[in-house]
Structures are given as structure tokens and as C-alpha cells.
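Obj.: predict assembly geometry.
Materials: sequence records (below).
Method: joint structure prediction, all chains together.
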Amino acid sequence: MSDLQTLQKQLNYDKTFDCVQCGYCLPACPTYETMERETHSPRGRINLVKMVAEGKATLSDLEEPIEKCLGCMACTTVCPTNVEYGTILEGAKETIENNRVKTKRQKKIEDFLFGTFFPSSTWMNRLGKATWLYQATGLQKAAQTLKLTTIAPLHLDKFEKILPPQPSPGERKSRKRHVYPDQPPVAKAIFFTGCIMDSAFFHINEQTIELLRRSGVEVIIPEEQTCCGALHAHSGKVATSKELAMKNIEACERENVDYIVNNAGGCGARLVEYDHLFAEGSDWHTRALAFTEKVRDISEVLVEIDGLHFTKPVTKTVTYQPSCHMTNVQKVTTPPRRLMEKIPGLRVQGMTNPDFCCGSAGIYNIVNYEDSMVILDRKMEDVTETAPDAIVTTNPGCLLQMKLGIERERKQKRMKAVHLVELMMEAKPQPKR
Amino acid sequence: MTVEDKEWVKELKVFIPEKQIMTGYADLVSYSFDGSFGEYMPEAIVQVKTKGEVVHVMKVANRFLVPVTPRGQGTCLSGGPLPVKGGIVLDMSQWPETIDIIPDDLIAIVSPSALAADINKAAEAHGLMYPPDPSSAHVGTIGGNLAENSGGPRGLKYGVTKDYVIGLEFVTPEGEVIKTGGRTIKNVTGYDLTKLIIGSEGTLGVITKATLKLVPKPKAVRTLMAVFDDVENAGRAISKTLTSGILPSKMEFMDQACCIAVENYQPSGLPTDAAAVLIIELDGHPAALAEEASDIEHIMKELGAKKIIVPQNEEEANRIWHARKQVSPATAQIKPTKVSEDATVPRSQIAPMIERLQQIKEKYQVELVVFGHIGDGNLHPNILCDKRNNEEMGRVEEAVAELFETAIDLGGTLSGEHGIGTMKAPFMERELGAAGLDMMKRIKESWDPNNIMNPNKIFPEKGQKLVLRNE
Ligand SMILES: Cc1cc2nc3c(=O)[nH]c(=O)nc-3n(C[C@H](O)[C@H](O)[C@H](O)COP(=O)(O)OP(=O)(O)OC[C@H]3O[C@@H](n4cnc5c(N)ncnc54)[C@H](O)[C@@H]3O)c2cc1C
Ligand code: SF4
Ligand code: SF4
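Observations (raw C-alpha cells):
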């Protein structure tokens, strides 16, 4: 194969032809709206990938537009010809990553970021002492002493402020790995904890397990599970991401369960697409399919089982900020709304443009802080219009971002950001049976 | 010399904020295409947000003889916003959207970047409606709609964009601001420049504001679907309906190939063994609609419809329209490249046209499907092909050429909706005759003496041919 052919393969050149350049994705794309140029639109990005694959543009032309893409996949939901933008984006990221000529210094920075800063498989097992984000914020100081701050001001102090109080290491250690409902179980599930959820929002994970338990589900929390690999894939580290997927598939195969449940829209989106990582017909592909078939968001399982009734009215106005990955990749849109409808006293106020990304997008808000804040401020306009007491989310990234948004608007006194699970627990759910 | 060093770029920067001028390679590539064929690199993209900025750009461009190509959202299907001669792409899409509805006058005053769908939504809040409904209404700008004189299914009853414009503000190629028309429906003062600018595809100037006419929003709508075994009968049923005192708001047609594609893609309950499916929408007072619907049902039956589906509720009606919407994605599954045409014929020639299209399909061995707004003779023959296959694209070019000739032979026109742009320019003389085309050219020359305004559109270059191949 010639160099260009190799490049075309890496960039999924063939898939770019599915785009008929109709522009239907333009109104859906947050970065087209905030950055105001076609270069940062889905159609523009796909066209650039194609141009690079044809040798009419270079990888460095592509770098910024791809880096500034949120990966929110809003474009795929509206695309009339079903362009596989996710595949194109991932291919572009990987190709850029593999072809980047790195200076020693850049390499050091990257090792630092991906070895220590971002969740890794070894990291999960070391949980307990410090949590990831706390570690991360601590690391910023370390980075300063290492004179690595030029990698981009990471603004981690902004995130430190909004983190909830952390459980003691003892609490974490005493987590049960196998939980039974009071009555004979109606279903059996593995709970996928997720790195960020489990570090920053440990209590929400505990509540999720409790909701499942009260619904009549037997819950297993395998120790061998690891990071879902989404953040790695979004950063072009596809190989690592694949390894993580294999570990998770193995960990879950050991138990014979009905569901593999998660409560993080972003993780769930990765988990349901594990089969895309392996060649069709391969052994791993079959195993991945068996895995993805069972993957569910917590809201889906709760609606499916329908084992709870809420005993305490929550007299609040809330607005729902759906997770992009949950909407556009998992295609889970109604279950969270159904559950909220069941909470007595709750008023759910729809916002304009709910499907506009909040700008958190994995680690986007950390690596592209300024761009992310423009998107967030835009989102907060729509949020504020609904005058909610709380913004309900279904993903840790969104939850953090919304908390940040409330901070920026100085509305901490009037508004809170909560995970749907927290909201449900507030309504004192009890088993129906 | 880099673009940045050019005198005209420096001049632009005197008045236009730096952020609104792009010259980076990735940006230039991103404004080199539209929804049709061909890539042409501009030298700079200038985003304008005020009339003053447009005036400045035009004055500079006219002085330095730099071509200027206006661009809305680049959804054009005929190459209108392609910077064929390089120069400046004038991006109108980032102009802040303003839509002022003046309910008492039944008008809307809008910015060039407003979306037709947004205008209609704003009108509906006052019990009014903005009828033109191109299927790209939620993406394309009103500036683009005006420049292309866009239309949609509602054209049958309500007409197209040009029927709703009563006044324009625009900037000439020499940088002068002109206002045409006004706020009244009746206006016979001087030449009707408004109508001249509409459909001029950005070759006469830049539209910076439009005053649009609104109509009362009908109280109710109703849908029917009729299935025919041959196209001729379907054609007769349409004529019979239109001569029996009923004017439906939409009459849409799908051929067998379309129905099969949709059913393969997403089963939607369309018949796959029928030659023609008609979807009809009526709007008006609910009482009148009930009667009209039953009249149409009779007519369809009388003229041989083998099946008539009358939805019992909104959900069922929506399902029918959803099936119609699936035509585009469904046919895209056949092959990746779509050549979407919009040749239009007099209503009486619909059946002959469809027959000729079948012949073209066989003669050139191309994947051709036909659907469209049959009530006003506006068909959408679509050829599905693969851009990468040069041999196939050669056949497609020939098929398209014959398709255009056929439409003209039957007393129709090259384009009912999408415009001429670069793609159809070679066929202009065939339709208009040498004198007709020459008169248009003289108008263009007097408006744009330096030929800087979207050059190489509408008018063919000597010996220009339809080209769908890249190399
Ligand atoms: C999927 C799809 C469906 C479509 N459906 C329809 C349909 O149903 N009916 C229909 O009629 N068309 C349809 N179109 C064609 C297209 O959407 C219309 O022509 C639309 O009006 C173009 O608007 P735009 O903002 O994208 O303009 P562009 O494509 O950017 O430009 C179109 C032309 O307008 C000129 N222009 C733009 N703004 C200005 C301005 N302010 N002043 C002067 N000139 C200007 C440009 O120079 C160019 O020649 C469809 C296109 C697609 C991709
Ligand atoms: S909507 Fe799909 S086909 Fe249309 S421009 Fe966007 S990606 Fe391409
Ligand atoms: S993934 Fe989101 S940000 Fe990226 S191109 Fe699609 S819509 Fe835009």
C-alpha cells in the first residue's frame, strides 16, 4: 500500500463519502455555534478528513478542528445519511496522535498526563487513599514544581471548588462487593462503577446500588473492572482503550447476570459500543456482543423493572440536561424523564435546546478550558430561563460542568446540580413488592 | 506574497474585525464546497454582520477587482456559493438573526441569516404563517432562499419564496445600498427590482434585509395517501382534483424505486408493488377539510387508485409524512453520491416525463429514482451513483444532460427550485434562446461592470459542459 492508501485506511476515507454535505448537522453542532466557522462544524471536519486523505491538506490542518470537537455526537443524531462520524473522529484522532512528531518535552508531558493524571487501569486499584480529581488537583501543584504548567493552564482549582465532600478511605474499603435485595431477587446485575463517578461521586454510586437493591435486583460489583476507556479513545489512544475493554469484558463474563448497569452517560456510551473495537467474526467480537447486549443505563433498568414507588414529594422545579452520549450514542432519552414524572410534587421544566452539549465532553473542559466555558455560558442561558431549583444530569462530567456553570453564574444559593440518582433518593423510594 | 500581505486584505481589515476574516488553509478548505459538486478554494473568507461591513467589502473588492461570492449555509444544490474564481467568500451565516413580526401588517422584517423555519415559527406565535417550505428550511438562510428562489411542497397552493417578498435592502457590487419595494402588498413604482434580485443567485448583489409577506395560519390540516398501479392514472387523478374546486396544500409523489428503498431501509408501510404513491395534504377549516377529503377519496377511487389510506389521527398522518421523509436517507443507502435534480414540467406532461425518465434510466444504466412535488410539476429525479467511479459518473453526466433536454422539450424548465449555479449553466441557451440569454447577460453587465459578483454562475463559459467528475 502506498502512504496515501495507508493514510486513507487510517482515516476511514471510505466513510467520508457517506457525507453528502447537506449541512443538516450545522444547527446541531455546539462548536459551530460558538466558534462560528465551518472549520469547526461536523461537515467541515469530515471534509477536512477527506481532504487530508486525498493529500489536499495536511494532518496539521486537521489537528485543531479535531481537537476542538466535543465528540458529543449531536451531529450523528440529525444526519439524514447516517454518516459514522464517531468512527471518522476516532480514526482522525488516532492518526493525528500516531503521526505527531513529539519533542522530548511533549512526550514527558504526555506521559505525565496519561500515566498519572488520567484514570488508568492501575489507578482504579489504588483508589481508596485519594480520589482521582483530588489527586489531579494535587498534581497540578506537582506539575508546577516540575515546571510543566506550560502544557496549558489546567484551571484545576476551578474544579476543586465544586467537588463534593469525600468519604473516608474506610467507607470506600467497606463497600460490599455483593448486595442482595430483601426479597428474592427479580434480576441480577453487575454495577459498573466508572472512574470519575467512583472517585468524585462515590456517594452517588452507593445510592445507585441501593436503588437497584430496593428495586429487587441482586447487585455484584466486580473488583476486576477497570476504566471504560472512553477518555483514552477520545484522546486517540485507541490501543489502550481496547485493552481496557477486554479487561472489562473478562471481568463481567465471570458472572452470569441480566444487566451490566452504569450511571455515567459517557461510560455507558463506550460500553455499548465495545463490539465496534473488534473485527466482526472474531472471538472477541462475539464476547463483546454478549457484553454490550446487557449494558444499560440505571434509568433504563429502573423503568424496565418498575420496582420502586416514591414515598416523599419533592416540591421543586427542575430542568433536565441530558447527557449527549446518552442521547446520541446510547439513544436513551425517555427513561430518565419517565422516572422524574413518577416523583410526586416534582415540576420538570423543559429547557430550549436541551441537546446542546454542556461543554464538559470527557476531558474537553480541562484541555480546552476557554472554548468549553463559552459553550457552558451559552448552556447556562437556557438553564437560567427555566429558573430551576436543580439541574438534573446523568453523567459525572455533566454534573461537574453544571456545578461549574452555577458557580460562574453565582447562583449557588438558588440552584443545585444533581445526578438523577440523587434526586430519586430524595423522594424516598420504596420497593413496590 | 501571502494573502495577508495583499493590499485588499489590509484594506478589509481597516473596517472589518480581524476575527471575521479567515485566511488559514483549514478555513479556506472548509468554505470550498456546498451541497453539490466541485471544490474551489477562496483566498479569504469574510464574515459580515452589518450592512456597513458588506458595503466596505464590496467597495474594496470592486476597487481591487477581487471576486466576491456570497454564502449562506452552503446547502445549495447547484454550486451557487462556490468561489469558482477564488477571491472572497462572503459568509452571511453569522449575521445575528433578527425576525421582527409586524402582525397588523402581516409582514416580517428579517436579517439575511434568518432561517425560514424560524421565521415561520415566529409567525405562528401570532397565528400567521410563512408558507415557503424548502426541506432545508431549518438549515439554509433566507438570503440563500431569496437568491435561489427556493420552494417546497406548499408551492402548489402558496407559491414559492418570490411570492412572499415585498421589499429588499441590498448592496450592489459597487457598494451602494439600494432599497426595493416597501411594506405594502401593492406597489407598481418603477421596475420590479425585487423580483429581479430574487433568484439571481448572488450575481447581482448582497441581500442584507428582507420584508416578507405572511398569511393567516390555516386552522387544520389533513393527510391522505393514494396508491396507483400506473403513473398515468395518478396524473389524471391529480388534474381531476385540481379542476374540481379543491386546492390541496401539498401533493407529493413517490415512484416504486423510492418506496422499495424506504421499505428496505426502515419499513414504513409503503406499498412496494405500486407504480405511484401520492401523498396529499389539505389545509383550511376543519369542516371544509372533511368534505374535501371525502371528495378526493372519490376522485382517487374513480380514477383507479387501488388503495387509499385516510389516517384517523395525527399520529397516523405523521407516520405517512415520516415515510416520505425517509426517501432521502433510504435512497442514500443505494449508493453514496446523490445527483439531485429538480427539472419541472407543465402538469399535463408529468406522466410523459416520468415515462421518459424510465427510458433514461435504462438507456444509461443508472440508479434513478423519482419523487417530488407532483402537484406543481416539480419532480426530483435523483441519480444515485459513486463519485469515485469515473466511468459511472460519465454515464450519469449523459443521463442528466438528456434529462434536462427532455424537460425543456416537454415545455418545462431546467430548475424548479435549486437554481442554475455552475451545474446547469451549459443548458441555459437551450432553454432561453441566444437572445434571451444575451439580455440576461446585459443586465448582469450593467449591474456588475467589473464582473466581481459571484462570477461564472448562471452564464456558461464558451464550450462549458456539465461536469460531475472531480478530475
Ligand atoms: C438536503 C437538502 C434539501 C433541500 N431541499 C430544498 C427544497 O426543498 N427546495 C429548495 O428550493 N431548495 C432545497 N435545497 C437547496 C438549498 O437548501 C436552497 O437553495 C437554500 O436556499 C440555500 O440556502 P443557503 O443559506 O444554504 O445558501 P447557500 O447555499 O450558501 O447559497 C445559495 C446561493 O445564494 C447566494 N446567497 C446566499 N446568501 C445571499 C445573500 N444574503 N445575498 C445574495 N446572495 C446570497 C449564494 O451566492 C448562492 O448563490 C435543499 C438542499 C439540501 C442540501
Ligand atoms: S448532516 Fe450528515 S450528510 Fe449532512 S453534512 Fe452533516 S454529516 Fe454530512
Ligand atoms: S461531535 Fe458534537 S462538537 Fe463534534 S462535530 Fe459533532 S456535533 Fe459538533
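Conclusions so far: Chain A has four domains: 3-98, 104-160, 169-302, 309-431.
To do: check interface contacts against the pulldown list.
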